[in-house]
Amino acid sequence: MYRLLKQDKKAKRGELHTVHGVIQTPVFMNVGTAAAIKGAVSTEDLNAIGTQVELSNTYHLHVRPGDDVVYKMGGLHKFMVWDKPILTDSGGFQVFSLAGLRKIKEEGVYFNSHIDGRKIFMGPEQSMQIQSHLASTIAMAFDECPSSVAERKYVEDSVARTTRWLSRCKEEMARLNSLPDTINPRQMLFGINQGAIFEDIRIDHAKEIAGLDLDGYAIGGLAVGESHEEMYRILDATVPHLPVDKPTYLMGVGTPENILEGVDRGVDFFDCVYPTRNGRHGHVYTNHGKLNLFNAKYELDPRPLEEGCQCPACRRYSRAYIRHLLKAKEMLGMRLCVLHNLYFYNTMMAEIRDAIDAERYQEYKREKIARMRAGE
Predict the structure, then answer these.
(1) Which residues are annotated as a binding site for Zn(2+)?
(2) Which residues form the active site (predicted)?
């Protein structure tokens, strides 16, 4: 159940009550594709840096180790030793990202595994069955993510099929949640709005899926090649047609500035690989912009990554030392950068929630963006 606690203009402050605990929104979900955060980050670390929700990938876990293995181990929470909420995506994004390895039909999608080439079929029912095996807190509906440059006719046909798939997902989820051997019979289902960068298609689709009374609604198919301005335009057009009393999730977004702009448009949930991927390459986020630790100017820099930061890296280590670790290809360097970046994101979300509570979100957003753009 979602409770809308406050609104500051369009910015929403809410709580999503789940079987695995209450999620305070807006929230950034920390991405652990294969049931682990890349960069040697443990679930104990996630608790220490203020993580509320972990996100794992249905397709990748189906391929390896196999959702049947996770089911036999008692579900994803027991498998990875994490007792807070988990969201699993549906595998639908792989329909987009593995374009050279798939065929889309009405019944579902035929894949070739990116690991060993074996044939895989996934449709709405299969996606729900896999996610039920994983026993995540929130399951995502199976959809197709059309390219941002796809022609209108293709997008129209794709969105119509995604809507048909969503009804099948809802029906299958209800069936699975009623079975006696289901690990999490209170698994939630979020539907996904698509439509590329066509405002009218997005709006019509939002209205249609809003009528299905799902647990939440996501906006997919953005941050896949279109400009930031196009993304904000689509959010401005689409979000008002999704239920304000349900969580709204902007999939795969993004930079700190993208998140601040998304919150301003009524988005509750975010996820992105940026903080972990960039951290593994020595790029760290701070309130004064992004630092590239490979730059020579940090060779003798005794300061933490960010003054005053309470993350595990900043409390003990210098920029000079972390730079050395990265250049020496020591895993600890990557780990410390990832921990810092996730802590930065999670802390920013707490600041956002506080700003909405205090009805000063606009001021907070302006100040935060101005500082990050100003640099050191």
Answers:
(1) 309, 311, 314, 340
(2) 89, 271
